[in-house]
Amino acid sequence: MTTQQIEHQNQSKTHSLIEPLSQETIDKVLQLLDEWMDDDSGYDEETWPELKEALDTERDLVSARRLFDE
User: How far is Cα 41 from Cα 39, in angstroms, rounded to an integer?
Assistant: First the structure.
């Protein structure tokens, strides 16, 4: 048993491992999303096909189901 497993085992059952985001963090995420939505550079349209191919290639190497059936 690893140290992490022991720590997790000893935590209270009501203790959440996921803490809620602060309002400041939420605001930063929303600002980042707004910036992405306003981006007209074409970078995402150029990069997305390459990223999809790389993800599926990696999944093929470990015999995992492909993420994109196109």
Answer: 6
pTM above 0.70? no
Note whether 66 and 56 are within 8 A (CB): yes
Helix (H) or strand (E) holding 49: helix 43-61
DSSP letter for 13, please: T
Per-residue pLDDT tens listing for the chain (70 residues): 666 666 656 555 566 678 899 999 999 999 999 999 999 999 989 999 999 999 888 888 888 887 777 6
Question: Do 67 and 55 meet the contact criterion of CB atoms below 8 Å apart?
Answer: yes
d(CA 4, CA 2): 5
The two structure tokens encoding residue 12: 């209270």
